Amino acid sequence: MQTKRNQVWSTGRVAAPAAVALGLLLGGCLTPDTTGAVRQVNLPDQPPQRAAPPSAAQREHERILSSYNGAYQDPKLDAVVNAAVEKLVAASERPDQRYRVTILNSAAVNAFALPGGQLYVTRGLIALANDTSELASVLSHEMAHVIASHAAMREDRARQVALVGRVFDNFGADPDMHALALAKSKIALATFSRSQELEADGIGVGIAARAGYDPFGAVRFLSSLGRQADLRSANQSAADTTRPDFLSSHPATPERVRNAQINARQFSGPGGGSREREVYLAGINGMIYGEDPSEGYVRGRRFLHPRLGFTFQAPEGFALDNTPQAVLGIKDGGGQAMRLDVVRIPAEQALTAYLTSGWIENIDATTVEDVTVGGFPAATAIARGEQWAFRLFVIRFGSDVYRFIFAVKQMTPAADRSFRDAVNSFRRMTSAEAASTKPMRIRIVPVAEGDTVERLAARMATDRKEERFRILNGLGPTDRVRAGDQVKIVTE
What we know:
- The strands form five sheets. The chain has a seven-stranded antiparallel β-sheet with strand order 10-11-12-16-15-14-13, sandwiched between helices. A four-stranded antiparallel β-sheet has the order 7-8-9-17. The protein has a three-stranded mixed β-sheet with strand order 3-5-4.
- It has three domains: about 70-290, no CATH class; about 300-435, Protein Transport Mog1p, Chain A, CATH 3.40.1000.10; about 440-490, Membrane-bound Lytic Murein Transglycosylase D, Chain A (Roll).
- It contains 16 helices and 19 strands.
- The chain is elongated.
- The two termini are about 20 Å apart.
- About 40% of the residues lie in helices and about 20% in strands.
- Helix 3 runs antiparallel to helix 11 (about 275-285), helix 6 runs antiparallel to helix 7 and helix 7 packs parallel to helix 10.
- The chain is α+β, with helices and mostly antiparallel strands.
């Protein structure tokens, strides 16, 4: 959850939370005269100068920054990425094409390109790669989309889909025909994208190899990506189904890994080309891992936000996911979900009045009541839909109002009690807690004599320590570490 206020759900229906549960901007001048004296020259009234409106590319850039928590600023990391891009550009089919690379401040694993040559890569993806050749395989893949005009064609196809929707909406076509036309358009767009990805894979491996990088970097990165996808699936929460990332548009299927191997063998055998592992690991040493401080932190069932100054603990069995819009959670096995977000409402508006103001429908008026949570004024109520029931809490904390929305298939006394207990854990953080809560960071450490994967993984400040250690370091289920190697661990 970012520090900005998220004005969402303001007009939502009671069915909207179920979707979260299931899925979640001179009059004059001076000039010298012939005597050398300065005189005033009055000019006709001029219209005020207006700044040129931002271009479409700039608007898209700003939208991307907003969606991914801004740019990640790290000169050391910038140097590693920019040096790789320079080599790749010189070795590409379009050395005249200019690129601007932005590292996005997001834990999501993603990379993409815009038609004009703007490349984006998240720090989450950078953390997953283990050497410069792996990162180069991603960057060259995205450059290939630009070189082959894929990005421009994709934009055009997306506009066509939107146009189809507008035409049918405006002229009141038969709903079944409308749905069929949209479905066909979207299928065509998706199929076209798959063929683009395969073409970009081949072009990208060639660019990386000609730039002197190990062409098998793509194979290793795709393998790590596949293991990351498996781990994400095991930990999947309500937000995972809607968060855009590299895994959804670049599936690391066995077929794709095999294609990467075939492409790489055209240039060298395994071990050929540069990997620049030491340079890469030095560049990412100290990089933030997971949530940025502006978003707060998930630590098991506990959520802490030192900057906003509050903390709470989710009900037993809940897994939390911290997104830019809200903190979302889902209980093991499904059937229960939660959302926490923040809004601003007038100070003079009573919280019970806000609960019944229409931002959520089907409120049971008999359940609306004023309460106190952590010493702060609050209100609660129950809303009921056809398939879900919702326990709602709103808490006035400073100038903001925090909204807890718990969804459950059937509201039982036990479920309702667990929701109330979770909300009652909401409190102001102490100064000591805020000072001691730090972001997790990537640390590069040497493997000492006698070190094992298990021993190194125990130092990880994450869940599923050994699995994450192996994925972060590109190690398979039975691979071992060797003394003298450098590895990534995550520490607070």
